[in-house]
Structure formats: structure tokens, C-alpha cells
Design a protein that fits this description.
97 residues, alpha+beta, SH3 type barrels, 19% helix
């Protein structure tokens, strides 16, 4: 494996998927901790409307905590917590119905 450091800007433009294979969005920018010299978040745009729906209407995107990142390569894989955000709404509809 190549351990050569890469520019963090190389993450911009990469697609983000959940570990379940669901498209989440595309990295547009990064949130950085300059003192700690670390990435703390991924600013995503081009979001999957099925995951975020009305919550992001009229907004430019979302920021995912970097701790959710599981793997970085040609794409970025994040925990399936993003997918589970929608499940409570669906469960509530079932209970009400």
C-alpha cells in the first residue's frame, strides 16, 4: 500500500456512499481543525434527495462528521447512520396509520 501523503483537496469532487452502497452526495469542501491539523467534516452537495428530502430543501448541502468516514479511496464510504436518519419517519407513519 502506498503511504505517500496526499493533498486533502484531492477529496473534493469524490462521491460519498454509505457502507450499504447508497449514494449520499459529493464532497464540495472540507471542515478543518487547523490547530489539530485534521479534517473534522465533509461538506456535501449534490445530495441524494431520497435520504435528505425536505430537510435540505433550499439549502446548499450538509456537513457530515469525519468520524463517520469508514474508508477513503476512489470514493468515500461512510457509516450507514446516514441511511438510518430516514427510518424513524417511516416507522412513525406505520404507527399512525
Amino acid at each position: 500500500m502506498d503511504d505517500t501523503p496526499q493533498e486533502i483537496t484531492s477529496l473534493v469532487g469524490r462521491e460519498v456512499y454509505s457502507n450499504g452502497g447508497v449514494f449520499v452526495g459529493e464532497i464540495e469542501d472540507l471542515r478543518l481543525n487547523l490547530d489539530g491539523r485534521s479534517v473534522t467534516g465533509l461538506a456535501l452537495g449534490n445530495l441524494n434527495d431520497e435520504l435528505f428530502g425536505e430537510e435540505t430543501q433550499g439549502r446548499k448541502g450538509v456537513i457530515l462528521p469525519y468520524r463517520w468516514v469508514r474508508a477513503v479511496g476512489d470514493i468515500v464510504i461512510v457509516n450507514d447512520v446516514v441511511e438510518r436518519v430516514r427510518e424513524p419517519d417511516e416507522e412513525q407513519e406505520e404507527v399512525v396509520a
